[in-house]
Amino acid sequence: MVSLARYKEQRSDHYPRDFFVARKWYEKALQLKPDMGSPFNQLAVVSTYESDELSAVYYYYRGMLVKTPFPTAKENLALLFQKNAKLFESKRPLTGSFETMSRKDFTRLFIYTTGLLFHRDLEKLNQVAESMSVAFQAGLKTGMFSSADDVLRMVIIIISALFQMKSDEIELQKVNGLLLIRMMKSLVLAASEKHVSAAKTVMYAKALRAFLLWLAFSSSGLKPAMESSDWIEMTQMLIRLLNEYSAPLSFDKPVKILSFISDDEALRGFLPLELALPDSYFAQRSLIKKDKEQSARTRSILFAAEKCADLQVS
Known about the structure:
67% of the residues lie in helices and 0% in strands.
């Protein structure tokens, strides 16, 4: 029944087609059943209709990494990766400055790289991972990412790829982990710039919060990359940023993940976090007021960072 709006729009004669209603129905289904893969898979399908391949990859992964995964989400994702790889490899090699790269070319590079992670192609990964890291940093610098969820979704995609790797795939875990660490290093650097806009502050904080929650509670796959110089640099930069985050806040109470915010609504059902955080956390339904959300986001970032520090000590 939920897919009727999508089918109706597919059969319509007007262009461009508008899947807004279908998308809203799938999102409502996820509010009721966030651990079901089917609505995520259908959102991925809608994203392909809208030529939004980045969102399609994100939703296919979400459709896989839930308690009740969609049966063909993995095969659908593999087909998307294969299609993108053919397009990417048919183009000339990457040349010139990454700061002049178009959003379309960046997206193809990102999906190509994550496709190599998905297919465990270590040889090709070693050829493009560094370019991917540099392109991501350039994208942050030039303001390529306009949506508040763009960066968050990229981080979730890389975490998803790492989550699916087996414990004995050490080299693949290392390459995957280094890519994630370098992305976070670029993110921390961008967030540390002076005069960051409010919109970008939210964008960066959303991605940073998701990464730190995962790192604090469910990050064993990252260990092969934690001996790198990139990890040391990232943690040092992060400490400086967190000191800036904590300065405006008054800590008359211990820092805790007390408030359920809109970020969490979007992450319901995501196994890498669901399996790590307390059952009661994602069971919350009451969202904090919008005007207090950024403060709550910052407090939970600091809470997760404190947990990460405890793990490092132990």
